[in-house]
Amino acid sequence: MSDYRYLLIKNNENALIYGERIEWITNKFDYKPYPKGSVDLGDGYAAYFFGADHAIEIITEKTISFSATSAYPAITFSYESVESEFVSQTDEEMLFRPLTGYCLNANYYSSGISERNNDHEWFLSNAKMIKKIKESFNVDLNSNPELLHTYATYTPSRIIVDTSVTNSDDLRKGEKKSKISVGVIDEFKAYQSLDIEVNFWMPNGTRTCDIIKISETPKEYVLEEFPQKFESIVKNGDAMIYHIKHGYITGISVSGNVITGTVELPNGKTQSVIHKSDFEIGIA
Amino acid sequence: MSTFRDLAKATREIVAPTTISCIPQIISKNPFDYAKEIIRSEIITSRLCTKITIIDPYVNESDVFILAEIYGGYSDLHMEVITKFETHENEEETDKQNRKKRVSDAANFLCKNGIFKKIDFFHSTEQMHDRYLIAWHENDVKRIFLIGGSIGQKFGQNTCIIRLENLRMQSFVLIYLKKMKDNLCG
User: Fold this and answer.
1) ipTM surpassing 0.95
2) Taking the model in full, what pTM does it have?
3) Domain B19-182 top-level CATH class
4) Of A43, A135, A173, B47, which residue is least crowded by CB atoms under 10 Å?
């Protein structure tokens, strides 16, 4: 069964300035019912979050509308274009992911496309509200300004590829060969018949590639050295379902600034005296 | 605009704070505090640089303490200030020398108290107007900013900070710096 989870942010004219709908197949760990509520953002702006057991918006050729309920007023949105995008979990991905652990298929309904340059002033004069939206809903309009004047529908791929290094103790002792296990969590067993492409990108630029059935995971790989990046891809026909590409953290450099004292300046101001404290953890 | 990704890229270029270039007074009611925070985070607390060069024609004793507020706190940071000697018309020679001494005393106070490693002042006779901030790591230039006003203006009067990313313009600023250092006095 699916939940349709909504976040709607409207202005003082009850027009949508940002909205999202996530289609979420529920499992036994999910809140039931999905919590609902609202946040007053000031100056007539407000945010509403709620769940529904079906898609409640009415989408016509150029408008999207939500009928009034006891929880929120009637909200409308006029859009100029609609685009579909696959949102991956690669290092290069630039689009906002409302669910950080999942790849998504998204539809973006956008308005005011030719006037986006004028949004700068709106962002500057609504800094407090933007901060409140980020704190309340983890939607950072400053970093993702394209979301303003956008209604997005997201369908997450309920699949997670899990990798783990199985010989990390040996690596710490100087072993060069690395053993990495690749497993797939196919939450609703919906993708068992599909293939997963597994790529290990090595430090010398070469790629070790394998294609296996999702149902055959987990599988352990023995590599001559530690890979620089891991990538996995799942497609259903031509449609991308899952794409992750990331590096591995083998060591962490910690740079600390420790205030060791304060100096009173002759102009009445103070300045801290800062001592640097740096150290490294892990394999350099 | 062909895709939503194109729209995202174009919008972020204007709105998203991917650079510290801005007019602080338009963003904040306290432009000095705002400018101080973004400059410190970009080049000081991030440990980007080991030396900072300030080019500003007008630097007096109180400006040295403003520099300490913005850039100070690390006793291994070297400050270099390029300024004019002939800052005031009809200034007597003794007044000039007194002004230089007060600036030098202020710098000594800061270094003695661990706010900077050292502060070098270069008084140039080269014609000077625009203000620049150059952040170095050893001999490598890491950042160059054009600052729209003098240190003493404390980013008021809608003074801008512009990061110069164009290599040709960066080269011009370094040539200008060399010219000033080649023509010292006092």
Assistant:
1) no
2) 0.82
3) alpha beta
4) A173
